[in-house]
Amino acid sequence: MQHWLTHATVFTGSEWINNCHVCVEDDHIAALTTSLPATHIEQHHCQNHLIVPAFIDAQVYGGGGRLFAQFPDTESLLALAAENRKGGTAQCLLTIATQPIEIILECLAALNDYLQQGGEGILGLHLEGPFMHPDKRGAHVLEWIHTPTVDEIDLILSHAKGHLKMITLAPECCSNAVLQRLRNAGVVIAAGHSNATYDEAKQFSARGVQSVTHLFNAMSSIHHRKPGMPVAVFEDNDLMASIIPDGIHVDYAMIKLAKTLMGERLFFITDAVTTTTDGPYKHMLHADHYALPDGTLSGSSLSMLQAVRNGITQVGLTPAESLRMASLYPAKLLGIENEFGNIAPGKKAAMVLLDENWKLLKVFGF
User: Fold this and answer.
1) Helix-strand-coil percent breakdown of the chain, rounded to 5?
2) pTM of the full predicted structure?
3) Cα-flanking dihedrals φ and ψ of residue 302, to 5°?
4) Of 118, 144, 187, 195, which residue is most buried, by most CB within 10 angstroms?
């Protein structure tokens, strides 16, 4: 079935097109044009508002009061997809923090069932932990953190059925055999919750690491005599990195510095959790962030749309670049840029309509 989105300012991912008309056929984009053909096909007049690519969040733990690891079921996944839509996110990596292996497998089983039924809004799983450095655990449960074996990785992969898309681990705590097994399975390896030195981090990409999770948070820090992990990330053109643009996890000045040094290798995540009163991760909302009862920072309250706004108003990015950090760049890391992350014929019709104040008006195609 075909319909038109007409009279919009469209950001394709590379350029802005004024008075543009988008033809959508089924769930794909069929055409972009500035000359609307005579047609009786259904039209949605966009009133010269902005159409931009829908967002992709590579790290989000739950929504609507249901933390997935605490409630691993379809209801939690539907709640997360609905919460994501409110912030313009079309696709996400469902994320679970450090858990015992039996909980990880239970989460995988629930996710597999959901994805077999259509999997609205979720690309797969991002496993954050338990293979991290205990000194950089942040809000993660210490007693479950450990060094992985190849057999343990094989067990997880066998239950994942191809749906484990990303894993955050401390590479200095993992063998080359473990990293190779993950790469062979097509899992994106992200370094995070790591105490790696500058010299150790310089070896990350050679060992199969492709990205870094929430840059600056839960990693060795920058010091003028000990450059630390972030400096190695800045220097390695083969590494991407996510960052949380809420001004709490990272000061906006540091985001600007990282962006200046990394360019297209840096992208946004929300790291968003939801209020949780049971289980090991009791996330409590404190105005604009979440913390555990002991005060440990445990997650953000960001949406991806707010991340984009912050990129523009607080970091000083152009609207185009802030949008790419929430769409095209994570799509490239996850290998889905042929479907998502920009607006062009043949791509998925995952788009959002925004007004001139960057308020979400409508979502299309998801």
Assistant:
1) 30, 25, 40
2) 0.97
3) -70, 150
4) 187
Instruction: Give the tens place of pLDDT for each residue, 119-157.
Output: 999 999 999 999 999 999 999 999 999 999 999 999 999
Which tens digits make up the pLDDT trace of 48-90? 999 999 999 999 999 999 999 999 999 999 999 999 999 999 9
Residue 32 to residue 20: CA distance in whole angstroms: 7
Q: Based on the residue annotation, tell me whether 238 is a catalytic residue of this protein.
A: no
- Is the backbone peptide bond immediately before 130 cis, with ω within 30 degrees of 0? yes
Residues in the chain with pLDDT < 70? none
Per-residue pLDDT tens over the stretch 170-195: 999 999 999 999 999 999 999 999 99
Q: Which of 199, 246, 271, 278 is catalytic?
A: 271
Residues forming beta bridges with residue 191, ordered by sequence position: 169, 212
- Which residues are CB-neighbours of 264 under 8 A, at least 6 positions away? 324, 329
Q: How far apart are CA 236 and CA 211, in angstroms?
A: 10
Q: What is the DSSP string of 223-289?
A: -SSS-HHHHHHHH-TT-EEEE--SSSSS-HHHHHHHHHHHGGGEEE---B-----SSS---EEETTE
Total length of the chain: 366
SS3 146: coil
Q: What span, in angstroms and rounded, lies between the C-alpha atoms of 251 and 216?
A: 10
> DSSP states of 59-88 as a string?
EE-EETTEETTTS-SHHHHHHHHHHHHHTT
* Residue written as token pair 């047609």: 39
CA dist 16 and 33 (Å) reads 12
* Number of neighbouring beta carbons within 10 Å of residue 336: 16
